[in-house]
Design a protein that fits this description.
The structure holds three protein chains of three kinds. By secondary structure, chain A is an all-alpha fold. Chain A is built from eleven helices and two strands, in the order ααααββααααααα. In chain A, helix 2 runs parallel beside helix 4, helix 5 packs antiparallel against helix 8 and helix 9 packs across helix 10. The chains are: A mainly alpha, B alpha/beta, C mainly alpha.
């Protein structure tokens, strides 16, 4: 162990937790960008994706198949929720919508409790292997998977929203619903798609992160809260900002724990959030109205 | 034209009325439902005097729900066994169980419901120190005995509360005794933010000198964190020979996993709350040495023939395996003991007076249970000793008796 | 009929006053449930002043609930002060924090304001946990005495019930007064169009700050009442989850109506008394019930009540 190994470990620790926050924040930002809705139920899709995959693999399905199936299932649930519930209350006030997503998250969590019970699930890492050693500090290989998946998601989003017709339609819809519908874009289909996207990515986040944690029906709350914080600090509409801030948040946390105090690290993080909100409310990377994808 | 216009108007009016009517109907239904439930709820509860009613407050949902399940199974089984043997004083035991949702406010409300409406003669349960505090507060105000099981440290003012869990003191000093025998003197503390951590830290520092142990450093961690390698790295610079982390469940497993990741091959002592099948599953594949203090029920094969608790434990373990298809665990045994203690108190007093029951429980001596031999007194409301605890470790994915 | 319209509130008061000896069956448990209900009515109504009237989203109202509760708890349990003194100190502290934090935070818009209030809530809770020597930390604060006035302790839940509901009555009355006062109307104006209000020369920051302090004061009172009833406090009961619960009461009942959130609080606090029997299904059931109410009754319970009233009694001629 060299003298600085613990400092490097702080970095890796921050990278690990930051990757969880970043991916979660990205899923939240995507839903917001397209539907201007902040979905409090994202944490439950996180859990549903993870637990579905665990169940499928434990029944003998090979991991790639389980992976794909879980995403499809979670996306279906998200689409269902949109079709049945969100569509009815689309025109309600922001507050009502937020409370609605809270109610949905309660219902989904209750469902998860009934389906999967109360015990935590152990999820095997995507590639079995020893931790990576660098200068006396270690990192779990799964973190590289998380970072990889995050980059893939970013690329997919960029491609979809910039290059495909459907994606451009969704962007148009978010910017100006009336105008978009006048142009013949089905706003209802777009909303459905947005939710499906959001729940799919939330589930993806859950599946990729699961090997790091122990997932049970209530495990979605923490990643969601931290994802929210990352989104708020990074800027509501900036996907790149969400990623960067997610990692930054993890790093700030771990260096605070390592160098200042492990007892008050949460207090410090929230105080930073408060400061950022007060002095730069659009977030570190947000601009007032510009759109980045 | 005009007719069509009028018709349209009429239809829209009817539709409006219908939707409002529907809304009003739904609302009325909900109101009536809630109103009825609240007012009739108490009346419909059967108030037969025959059974002895005991209230059990359990974390059946919330982050401790896995614990609640074990507690419930143990209590249910013990009550069933006692009832099969004829009950207490010829009367059956009836357990009334509620879910505290891991919230002290809910626990307070439930304790009051159990006392006022369900008219229980004793309370038991609670998974954490905070819930224990809430329930104890209600029990002492209402003068109903409560047998809780958690790290909650009883104060003298709480004359109606008993805690039949092994004292945190034992759970910490027992491993320290083991360390002393092995020549381990440098120990680091990694405590969770929360009541367990506060308790564990205080007790560890109190007993360290007794066993020639120096606490080289202490760090705290968030039980919801995905990674604690930062704290571990910080502690590693102090060269500890062992780490004590008074934490239960997933966080304990995460600690073990992170330590293995960092190739920290020193023993990790966790709380006695981990002596459960659930925790075993979480760490079965993790390399490293994890030490779990536990009651003897987790390793019945190692009990000496003349151990006074052997008979109780073997019988309970056998019945538990038959009924639930899994081995009996520490928490189930603990909860079963609470039922037994209350039953014993009832057997002695033969009355329905909670105060007399409290007095009787207070004077129980030499009573064998799953957790050990109980010797209660007005100044000792816990009743067990350090010798009633053993140390477990995990080898080949199974529990192994350490000492 | 007209008399009912004008004096319905007397009827409600009578119902509340008569509850313990009649439906409550002189049961300390039933009174206890309604004590919690009353405390949350105060919380919901105080939040309605902030969110309903002034339109300032707060997802961290439990912060002031906590400050009041812990101030009362610490001062009476550890320093033996009188509960009334502790209550006033709690209000002072709450108001102080609201004043200090309000100035910068209330200028934020919507979502950012929500996040800032959430951050404040978390900061307060983590401080409570961190300052263990003062607050008992995560293990909790014990031995809080019952509320007492002029030496008379209210340790019987049935007596305390009346104290709590008397305060509820006062708070609701005061809030209604605020809503109908020029102050309240200015807040509504700021809510609907802040820019327009500014052009009229209204100092929006000052008005927003004042209502924030007011809502914090009421929440603090609720906290003190809570502490003396529980006898034991733990930070678990003051988390963002609690803040969200209060928020839900607001929307359930009908935001902006003062009566609505009171109804929402009553409904949400009594609901578990109905669903607890369902154990594992309770979480799912609560979520579904909430969804049903939100989808079919967008104006909240209060809206339904008003429609009901209109159908039965007819609208009042202005």
């Amino acid at each position: 162990m060299n003298e600085f190994s613990h400092l490097i470990q702080f970095f890796f620790s921050g990278l690990t937790t930051g990757s969880v926050y970043a991916l979660m924040a990205v899923s939240l930002v995507i839903v917001y960008k397209v539907s201007l809705l902040i979905c409090f139920a994202q944490g439950e899709f996180f859990v549903i994706g993870a637990l579905t995959m665990v169940t499928l693999t434990s029944k003998g399905l090979p991991m790639p198949a389980a992976f794909v199936l879980s995403i499809i299932l979670s996306t279906a649930v998200g689409a269902l929720v949109e079709r049945v519930l969100i569509r009815r209350i689309r025109d309600m006030s922001v507050g009502n919508l937020i409370v609605m997503t809270i109610a949905i998250s309660l219902a989904l969590r209750g469902l998860a409790l009934l389906i999967w019970g109360k015990e935590s699930a152990v999820s095997p890492p995507f590639t079995p292997g020893k931790p990576i050693h660098v200068l006396g500090a270690t990192l779990q290989p799964q973190v590289l998977w998380i970072i990889g998946v995050t980059i893939l998601v970013l690329f997919l989003i960029w491609f979809f929203f910039e290059k495909t017709k459907a994606g451009i339609a969704m962007r148009a819809c978010a910017e100006n619903r009336l105008g978009a519908s006048l142009m013949g874009i089905s706003t209802q289909k777009v909303a459905l798609f947005a939710w499906a996207w959001g729940s799919g990515i939330g589930a993806l986040a859950g599946m990729v992160v699961a090997p790091l944690l122990f997932i049970q029906y209530g495990s979605g709350v923490m990643p969601m809260v931290k994802g929210f914080i990352a989104m708020s600090i990074g800027g509501l509409e900036s996907i790149a900002g969400a990623v960067i801030t997610g990692f930054l948040l993890g790093l700030v946390e771990s260096y605070t724990i390592g160098l200042i105090s492990s007892q008050f690290s949460d207090t410090i993080v929230f105080t930073i959030l408060l400061f950022v909100l007060v002095f730069k409310p659009s977030g570190l990377f947000g601009a007032s109205r510009s759109r980045e994808v | 034209m005009k007719e069509a216009h009028l018709l349209l108007l009429m239809i829209t009016r009817i539709q409006e009325r219908r939707s409002t009517m529907k809304k009003i109907r739904v609302a009325l239904f909900l109101f009536a439902g809630v109103f009825l439930m609240v007012s009739l709820g108490g009346i419909s509860g059967a108030q037969t005097k025959a059974p002895y009613k005991m209230g059990v407050v359990l974390p059946l949902t919330g982050y401790l729900s896995w614990l609640g399940e074990y507690m419930k199974k143990g209590a249910d089984l013990k009550a069933e066994l006692l009832n099969k043997a004829g009950g207490v004083n010829g009367r059956p035991l009836e357990l009334i169980e509620y879910d505290d949702q891991s919230s002290p406010e809910t626990a307070t409300r439930l304790a009051q419901r159990l006392i006022s409406r369900d008219e229980v003669i004793a309370l038991q349960g609670t998974g954490t120190a905070v819930i224990s505090g809430a329930v104890s507060s209600v029990a002492n105000k209402s003068k109903i005995p409560a047998i809780i099981q958690s790290g909650y440290a009883l104060s003298e003012k709480e004359t109606f509360t008993f805690n039949n869990a092994h004292r945190t003191d034992f759970a910490i000093s027992r491993p320290m005794m083991y360390f002393q025998k092995r020549g381990i003197t440098q120990v680091a503390l990694l405590m969770p933010i929360g009541p367990l951590g506060e308790l564990g830290s205080g007790v560890a520092r109190k007993y360290a000198p007794t066993y020639n142990i120096t606490i080289v450093g202490e760090e705290k961690f968030d039980v919801k964190a995905p990674d604690v390698t930062a704290q571990l790295a910080k502690l590693r610079t102090l060269n500890p020979q062992a780490i004590m982390a008074f934490t239960t469940g997933e966080p304990a497993a995460l600690l073990a996993r992170n330590m293995a990741q960092m190739a920290m091959n020193i023993p990790l002592v966790v709380s006695h709350g981990n002596a459960t099948p659930g925790f075993l599953r979480l760490v079965a594949q993790t390399p490293g040495t994890v030490i779990v203090p536990s009651g003897k029920i987790m390793a019945p094969e190692f009990l000496a023939e003349n151990d006074p608790t052997k008979k109780v434990i073997m019988e309970f373990a056998r019945e538990y395996q038959t009924k639930y298809g899994e081995p009996a665990n520490y928490y189930s045994g603990q909860q079963a003991d609470a039922v037994s203690l209350t039953a014993e108190g009832l057997r002695v007093t033969r009355s329905d007076d909670p105060v007399k029951l409290r007095d009787a429980i207070e004077n129980i001596k030499n009573f064998p249970g799953c957790n050990g031999v109980y010797n209660m007194s007005p100044t000792d409301h816990q009743g067990t000793r350090m010798e009633d605890m053993i140390l477990l470790t995990i080898r080949d994915g199974k529990w192994a008796f350490l000492e | 009929m007209r008399h009912i319209q004008r004096y319905w509130w007397l009827l409600v008061l009578a119902l509340i006053a008569l509850y313990p000896p009649t439906l409550g069956g002189m049961s300390p448990y039933r009174s206890g449930v309604l004590i919690f209900v009353g405390i949350y009515v105060i919380l919901a109504v105080s939040l309605d002043l902030l969110m309903g009237l002034a339109g300032l989203i707060s997802v961290g109202h439990a912060a002031f609930f906590a400050i009041g509760a812990y101030a009362s708890g610490i001062l009476t349990a550890k320093y033996g002060t009188s509960p009334l003194f502790a209550l006033l100190m709690g209000m002072l502290l709450s108001g102080g924090v609201a004043w200090a934090v309000g100035r910068p935070v209330l200028a934020l818009k919507e979502y950012y304001l929500a996040m800032a209030t959430l951050a404040l809530n978390e900061i307060i809770v983590t401080l409570i946990i961190g300052l263990q020597w003062l607050t008992g930390g995560a293990s909790g604060l014990r031995d809080i005495p019952a509320f007492s006035l002029l030496g008379f302790p209210f340790d019987n839940p049935i007596h305390y019930y009346y104290v709590v509901w008397a305060i509820v009555f006062l708070v609701v009355l005061a809030s209604l007064g605020v809503a109908r006062s020029p102050f309240g109307r200015t807040l509504i104006a700021i809510h609907s169009d802040e820019t327009a209000a500014k052009t009229f020369g209204i100092d929006c920051a000052r008005y927003k700050g004042r209502v924030y302090i007011l809502s914090a004061l009421y929440a603090s009172v609720a906290g003190s009442l809570f502490a003396h009833y529980m006898g034991f406090l733990a930070p678990d009961d003051f988390s963002v989850l609690t803040s969200i619960n209060i928020l839900v009461m607001l929307f359930l009942g009908g935001i902006g109506t003062i009566y609505g959130p009171a109804l929402g609080a009553i409904f949400l606090k009594l609901l578990p008394e109905f669903t607890y029997q369902f154990q594992d299904y309770e979480l799912l059931l609560n979520g579904i019930i909430l969804i049903v109410v939100l989808v079919f009754m967008p104006k909240g319970l209060f809206g339904i009540l008003m429609s009901l009233k209109d159908r039965l009694i007819g609208t009042r001629a202005t």
